[in-house]
Amino acid sequence: xxxxxxxxxxxxxxxxxxxxxxxxxxxxxxxxxxxxxxxxxxxxxxxxxxxxxxxxxxxxxxxxxxxxxxxxxxxxxxxxxxxxxxxxxxxxxxxxxxxxxxxxxxxxxxxxxxxxxxxxxxxxxxxxxxxxxxxxxxxxxxxxxxxxxxxxxxxxxxxxxxxxxxxxxxxxxxxxxxxxxxxxxxxxxxxxxxxxxxxxxxxxx
Length: 205
Ligand SMILES: N[C@@H](CCC(=O)N[C@@H](CS)C(=O)NCC(=O)O)C(=O)O
What we know:
single chain, 9 helices, 2 domains, alpha+beta, binds glutathione, 4-stranded mixed β-sheet, 54% helix, Glutathione S-transferase Yfyf (Class Pi), Chain A, domain 2, 9% strand, Glutaredoxin
């Protein structure tokens, strides 16, 4: 049985929970209270010195970085439906996983952290920067979904779980992109029960 250190509102935790649930893998979900600074406590830093969630523990193996965890689970359980190994699908999946971490994720953090969770202490320049970045990135995501149901073809993969966890996080700030390709893709992703379970209460209705 896996131990997952997570927090329900964490976009990076939610993608891992979505895969664990969708694939029916056994795990114990240990909530680290981010709102009370639990991620900075010495006992958690001993597990993940980056003071970030999620972390997956599998016996002696401890893994941080949510996308690395997704790949690990797929490889360990041979989840080829979530991580197909034909070269074209794999190339698309790796591209979107890295794009999410390098391009999309920081823009989402700029917007949601500063608009919602930091409230009046939020950094206004970061919010502006985040919205400017999203104005560039949403059309790129939309174009990536042209003529296909999911990012790597017509089946959902870990790339969809990962990117959709960022995009649905934007709902906290009422900043979800409105491009039809993205809206329709979100509807498809949210019909996956494992993913739907991870949605913040606001979006789960
Ligand atoms: N690249 C990391 C990012 C994880 C991350 O930023 N987690 C947030 C919660 S969504 C966090 O723990 N933030 C606290 C901090 O950075 O100190 C991943 O993909 O797992």
